[in-house]
Amino acid sequence: MNNTIIIKMLTAFLVFSFLAGTGVAFAQDSDDFLPLDKANAVIEDDSSATSPTAVIQTRPFFTRNLKWGTIAILASIAAGFCLRSKQTRGLRIVFLLASLVVLGFYNGACPCPILSVMQTVRLAVGKSVSWKSLVYFVGLIPVTYIFGKVWCGWVCHMGALQEFIFLPSRFDLFRSVRAQKVMRLMRYILLAALIAWVAITKYPKWCIYDPFKTAFSLSSVTSVGWYLLGLLLVSSLFIYRPFCKAACPIGLMLGWVTKIPGASVIGLGRKCPQCMSCVKSCRIDAIIEDDKKYSVDNQECIACGECIDTCRLGGMRLFRKGSAHPSKFSCDDHPLMDDHSCISDE
């Protein structure tokens, strides 16, 4: 697949996104994130409707949330193909910019993938939800299994905002192993808090606190949204993707998918020159040091492909998770190694 084909695919994606976003038949953003009984409720006091049936028929099958969730999934699939070719990996910046503009500023960060996660949790605890609200997050699970966490590294508008704010030449803090462990622990704690919030609350209003919605729409109904946005912007200057590392429930849960046998992961190839170029290029810090050895944690990897491009011997490659190439590996200190020098950390 050459650059021309990929560019055409990306152009088609942007055109389709624009046409879908300007359709007049979409439902309101919040419709798909209401409980099932409320989502399908009939507006009885609508004087313009001759019958309840007439009101129901005005709702299209492809609501706004379903359409944009589908678009994000299709974009992730396209990104997955781009990741697999050296000639197209450079398009990642184009994907991120398109996501920032279309899914972020144009759409006002709606629909929100975190809300889709929350609806999935609601379903898991036995509450009724609209199936359309599950498509965004649930659809990313098979995509992650087949292609890796390409949504995180290529398509996510929340990650794109942080990435474009970050100033690597001036600041690059909290990259130690200890700092990474603390931030990852924070993410588990926040996920547990999110699950508890969803379980005990009838309908948690995430949107009124969402700093990304505040950033893209430049409005917030509460002061909390502005405070969280300020924290996000300041931390993004000093830390690469701080929300992704310390708070995002989507990246954490999609990371679990990479542990399933057969999942797409990045691992060590035939040779390693021990130049540490992959370690230096991994800004998400998925390649970590432990007792003078290095390992790749594909649960944290966002499949950006930087480590693959920077290795001069082609040592980093995409694999299917299995016994030969586990998602985590350590390598000894020999100047040149083959596949048998890799020692599983699992």
Structure explained in plain terms:
By secondary structure, the protein is mostly helical. The protein has 16 helices and six strands. It has two domains: 3-255, no CATH class; 262-344, Alpha-Beta Plaits (2-Layer Sandwich). 50% of the residues lie in helices and 7% in strands. The chain has a two-stranded antiparallel sheet. β2 and β3 form a beta hairpin. The longest helix is centred in the middle third of the chain and has 24 residues, at 177-200. Mean pLDDT is 79; it is low at 18-57 and 333-346.
Name a few traits of the molecule:
disordered C terminus; Alpha-Beta Plaits; globular; 2 domains; two-stranded antiparallel ribbon; 346 residues; mainly alpha
How would the blueprint of this fold be written?
Blueprint lengths: L2 H19 L14 H4 L12 H5 L7 H20 L8 H15 L6 H12 L10 H13 L2 H6 L1 H9 L11 H24 L10 H7 L5 H16 L3 H5 L2 H9 L6 E5 L8 H5 L5 E4 L2 E4 L9 H5 L5 E5 L8 E3 L10 E3 L2
Antiparallel strand pairs: 1-4, 2-3, 5-6
Helix pairs in contact: 1-4, 1-5, 4-7, 5-9, 6-7, 6-10, 7-14, 11-12
Query: Given the C-alpha coordinates, what overall shape results?
Result: globular
| Secondary-structure element order, N to C | HHHHHHHHHHHHHHEHEEHEEE
Major beta sheet, strand line-up? 1-4
The structure class reads: mainly alpha
Compute the separation of the termini in Å: 35 Å
The number of helical runs is: 16
List unreliable stretches of 5+ residues.
18-57, 333-346
Alpha carbon gyration radius: 21 Å
Average pLDDT taken over every residue: 79
Write a concise synopsis of the structure shown.
By secondary structure, the protein is mainly alpha-helical.
